[in-house]
Structure formats: C-alpha cells, structure tokens
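Appendix B. Chain record.
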Amino acid sequence: MLRNKYVRTIIMSRVLLQLGVWVRNFAILLYVTDITHNDPFYVSLISVAEYAPIFLFAIIGGTFADRWLPKRTMMISDALSACSVFVVLLVVMSGSWRALLLATLVSAILSQFSQPSAMKLFKQHVPEDQLQSVMAMFQSLSAFFMVIGPVIGAFIYNHYGIEVSLIVMIGMFTGSALILGLLPKDAPEQAGKSRNGIMAEMKSGLDYVRSSRVLRNLGLAFAFAGLAAGLIQPLSVFVIIENLGKDRGFLQWIMMANGAAMLLGGMLIMSKGKAVKPQTMLAFGLLVSAAGTVGVGWSHHTALTITLQTLTGFFYPCIHIGINTLILRNTEAGYMGRVGGIMGPMFMGFMVIGMSAAGYLKGVFSLFAVFTGSGVLFLIAMLILLPLVRAKESGRQSLQG
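Structure tokens predicted for this chain:
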C-alpha cells in the first residue's frame, strides 16, 4: 500500500495533521480551564467549536470537495488552518485568549473540505481490493494518536505554554500542506463536472444516498450506532466510581487499554482482513460492541471490566473500517464528498443526542439500564446490516433500489 504515492503522501500528511489537532485540543482545553478557573461554559464552548462544524459544514464541504480539485483543496485547507492559527497567536500574545476558540472553529470547518477530498483521491487511485487495508491503516493511525495524542498535547502545553503550542500547530498544518504538494498534479477531470448550483448539488447527493440500498442501510445503522455510543460516552467515569469503587483517575488506564486495543485491531485488519467482506466485519464489530457494552455496565470486577473494554476496543475498528470501505466501494467518485458529508453528521448528530440524554436516563433508571439500552441499539444497528451481510457483492447494480 505504501508503494502507492497517494496513500504514502496522504498518510504522512495525516500524521502531521493529527499531531496539530491533538496539540490544539489539549493545549487549548488546558489553557482555557486555567484562565477561566474551570468555567464549564467556556470549557463546553471548546466542544461546540470542535463538533458544530460537522453538522453545519459537512454536507457543504463535501459538495465543494466534489466540485473542486482534491489536491488543491487539501493544500489550501491546511494552509488556511496554519494562517488562522498564526492570526490567533498574534491576538493571544496581545492578551485576548477567547480567540483560541476561533482557532478550533476554523480548523474544524476547513477539515470538512479536506477530509472528503482525501477520500476522493483514494477512490480514484487505490485499487478496490486495497481500499479496506487503506482504511485499516487510517483507523490504526487514529487509534495511535488517541493513545499518545493527549500525552503530547498536555506535555507541550505544561512545559512550554500556549504560545509554543500554537507555533507547533502552525508548523504541523504548514508541514501537512507542503507534503501534499508532493502529490501528482490534479487532472482537470478530477474536478466535478456538475455546475447546477450548491443547493441543487446537495439535493443530488441526498437523492444519490436514497437511491442506494447499501448507503441507506449504512446511514440508518450509523444513526443507531451513534446513539448507542453517545449514551455511554459520558458515563464511563461512573463505571469507574460506582461499579469498580475506584478514583476517577483510574479512567485514564481504561482508556489507554481501549486505545491500545483499537490500534492492535486496526493493524490486524490491515494485514489479515482483506479476505473478510466489509459488511461482515462491520456487523461483527457491532455485535461485539453490543455484548461488550452490556457486560461493562453489569461488571463490578476490575479485571473483567478491563478485559471487556480491551475486547470492544480491539473489534471497534471493524465498525469504522467496514463503514468507510463500504462507502468507498459503493460511491461514485463524483459523489464521495457529499456522501461523506451526509454520513458523518448521521453518526455525530445521534451521538450528541445520546450524550445529552445519558445523564438524565441514568438518574431515572440506572447505570446498568443505560448500558443495556446502548447494547440493544448496537444490536439493532447490526440487524439492519444483516441483508447486506447475506447479499453477495455483485457490483453497483445490486445496490440500487
């Protein structure tokens, strides 16, 4: 895979982007908590700046990514991210820390244009039998930075302060743009040919998803999986405190075990998973998540909880790798951006709904009841995919209807 110049170059770019994003996330979070004395309003605004662009700009960014040349789009997005952080650095040095929220917002918005362009290049230049391995490589990269990203971000901020953290971000975003310059020049045909207006093209993307049985089922399964993930995400600390009777600081060890297992799972799929159909992999990942989630909510034993978290982490890459592979295989290159812009908010939107309801549901019912409900939602997502698991992959024709 790494012999493919597109894969190799985009991977190197994403390494620098991941470093920049994790430094951004943790340095800004720690600085804002320090400067505001843990004011929950401003701390929550960081999450809003990070996630709101996914809802507001994913479909817009995906539509423009389908219209524009992918290499140029990614380079300009990374360069603009670096410029925005530079402006924020100047403002922060003058004494206004609230501009930090703007740095998070701008880079999050620009990523909605850059990410679908990368998927478009993979669709065009990676053989179909290698797509699943490429997605596994990307999942492994994300899992790796989930483990070390917080450590790096916190270390740079704690030792060098917010100004150096911002300079590191500028360097990472600029480096990513320069690396992308190594890609072959965009061919004119890589730009979308349709010029019917943005609203018409967004509607065309929605119609395209509705016309595909695979994409319809994926979107529905994505929504249930997002709701399931959102219900349990804010309650992990209560598993540590109520079920295991430990200090909340123990949560970091659970998360590290989960992240390390995700990394190993992604690497295994990358090397051995080519023979497994992506829909089978996705359904199995959802089934393991369903069983593991119920088990974590029920367990009062530390060793069992860690084992279950490690097991679900190991198979969690099956979900995202399976979904991304199916999207890449069953979406025409001219629609890649819009399909991604529809699918992403499906997961994130329902995850936010789940996160919003988690605390209330725990108070009304119990921790175990919420985790069980989450497990049932994962199971429903798996059942939605069963028709795809049974169906043979027979090309685009079998996926319409």
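Further analysis of this model is presented in Appendix C.
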